[in-house]
Amino acid sequence: MLPSRTAGQQGPVAAWVSTAGWASGARRVLGSSWIVTPMGIHQPEVARRAGSHIKLATPIAPTWRRHVPNLAKTLAKDIRQYQRARSFRVATSGPWSTTDITFVWQRHDLFHDAGLRLAQQLGVPSVLFVPATLVWESQQWSVERPGWAPWIERHGETAKLMQADLVACGSEIVAAQVERLGVPAQRILITPSGVDPDLFTTTQSTANKTPAAMRRDLRVDDRFVIGWIGSFRRFHAIEQAVLAASKVENSLLLLVGDGPERATIRRYARELGVPVRFTGTIPHERVPEYLAAMDVGLVLAAEGQPFHYSPLKLAEYLAAGLPVVAPDIAQIRDRITDGVDGVLSTPGDADVLAGHLKQLRDDPILRSRLREGALDSAQRRWSWDCQIERVITALGELPHRNRSSRQS
Fold first, then answer.
1. pLDDT tens, residue by residue, 211-222
2. What 3 state SS string does the chain have?
3. Does pTM surpass 0.85?
């Protein structure tokens, strides 16, 4: 169950792309899966394409919206979300009617419980995936809800968290917030973002462009290509990549994706004289091609700012065999072994980051060693299939909870 829409969002839409990953893993492990959204029922490939369509863009807001206080916008958004949640219901009958359902998975969103309701009606376990507890996350980004935040958290989040059989959290920080809201620790599972192994095997074996051809098309010449992929948003701290690249001779930034901060990053790169290639949103199935054109991939974190999410880009860098430089913070240290399958860097310090980049530029043997370590790590630990298998194991270890019998 994916409650969100792609309409009005700027690509890539992480919720759709990562949900497609979960569903593809479920299909490989269990045989079948479906993604149910307010826009219809999709197979993983369709959802992946929808979430990374090159024409996805945020509509231009009318001028009058600039004069509306942020508080009013937040309230209107919460009301709209409540209305959408009440209207999103899924019948027990569907393409899954003749299938023995293992569990119903739902991505967490305010007020939404369609997947939890369906699981109860079918008499099967429910899994609520929580990339972040949303009221808490909004507070981290200084979004105010004076007076109604406790009500939203209690009725829009806590009630749904308590209803789920298993709460799968993207990181330990998110799990701590889920536990704060009352979910017992034994019903919480940490499930970091994974990678679709089919995307990084079959795609590369087809007639898609080779790394050399991609580098020619992107006009990177013989430069050291520092890559980043994702949505251009403030909390991704992409300006650090620009500043670090300005200190690394013969380098070029390859920034894949789009978002509201793209124009700001473009201006900053011009000010510092940093060569940059902006690709815009690309179809997600072409991600391996772009990663293969890079010499190193970056994960970034702003100094002193919250970093609670599990970056999809990290798993994909590893699966592509791309040397990674990532911030030395708890949830990254759990996934990267410094010097083995990546390099850990001081969060928010562009000088230290530049030093690591220079070392990688000048040491092809180190890059080769990290490439081998990344591939090994991705294959052993970071596929979506692994996360699905861990969910199934965790569900099997939970005490029985009364559910209604399956309806036909």
1. 899 999 999 989
2. CCCCCCCCCCCCCHHHHHHHHHHHHHHHHHCCCCEEECCEEECHHHHHHHHCCCCCCCCCCCHHHHHCCHHHHHHHHHHHHHHHHHHCCCCCCCCCCCCCCCCEEEECCCCCCHHHHHHHHHCCCEEEEECCCHHHHHHHCCCCCCCCHHHHHHHHHHHHHHHCCEEEECCHHHHHHHHHCCCCHHHEEECCCCECCCCCCHHHHCCCCCHHHHHHHHCCCCCEEEEEEEECCHHHCCHHHHHHHCCCCCEEEEEEEECCCHHHHHHHHHHHCCCEEECECCCHHHHHHHHHCCCEEECCCCCCCCCCCCCHHHHHHHHCCCCEEEECCHHHHCCCCECCCEEEECCCCHHHHHHHHHHHHHCHHHHHHHHHHHHHHHHHHCEHHHHHHHHHHHHHHCCCCCCCCCCC
3. yes
